[in-house]
Amino acid sequence: MKKKLVTMFTSIGLIGAMCTQTIGCAANENNYIINVSYDPTREFYERYNELFTEHWEDVSGETIDIIQSHGGSGKQALEVANGLEADVVTLALEQDINQIRNAGLIEPGFVDEFPDESSPYTSTIVFLVRKNNPKQIYDWSDLLREGVDVITPNPKTSGGARWNYLAAWYYFEQQGQSEAEILGSMKQLFEHVLVLDSGARASTTTFVENGQGDVLLSWENEAFLSMEEHPGEYEIVIPSVSILCQPTVAVVDEMVQKHGTTEVSEEYLKYLYSDEAQELIAQSFYRPVNETIYAEYSSEDSDRTISEPPENGRWIASDIDLTDISHFGGWEKATEVHFKDDGYFDSIYE
Q1: What is the pTM of this model?
Q2: Is the Cα dihedral 206, 169, 162, 246 positive or negative?
């Protein structure tokens, strides 16, 4: 069998150069597609692309190459809206894809194109702390204590950062705080943030590689990967409440029509719901939407501190109190209130 090419790029400029100089994005004759994704999906899509290229050859008799791009989700959405010729986008939240839809590149109703509101996997927000949790950080209120340094990305450019922000907001709301009190708590939290990186992976690098901060507000899968790559150095703390993160996928309609890649792009996203892909999703520490596979990886252990990856493979703490974006009125309202220019985040961070 011909070896498949799965290419991963983090630089938009490299993709543009490849499209214009080597292949020609407008006339690729179905021999490759571009998936523009967000930071912490790198390892998963590296494995999924191998799985999909084999599947595509089996069902179509054709080979396909996947070009992969990663970065802060909001920044990635802006790049696509401004002309990066992605065939599919697999971003951190629905609102980032709305930005591309508003640019006229994706048809309305994309959330209904695939099951589970076009969210083939979910995640949540946890804390990654250093071994033995020296600052004794167990919940969101601990982030406000004097001497606790926090690492989180910038909500202006990172979808993961927006989930972090909303999870914290929900916690303070659950404590019975008024809106003014919540704003005060959020301002205090962000006063403890050392660095606002542009994306989740950059924040992981700041915390893990550069040794800055006492706690990283992290995607669940990103935290587990850090524990695997640096055994014995970190622990995961599950806060009392968090948020159900629903990364969203979509075909970029205008681009696939231009490239002649509609069929393969639709199958690329549809296959994420297959049993094989859902198993891979769980093995990559994302939460599968397939209920049977989800159950296979669920743990009844209620311990809020995870000192090492579980040996039995049951890593999903299924008893977390999770809110979701509907609690905030959906992404359009949440963006308007919290993340637009002069919204709550701007007032908090200023």
Answers
A1: 0.90
A2: positive
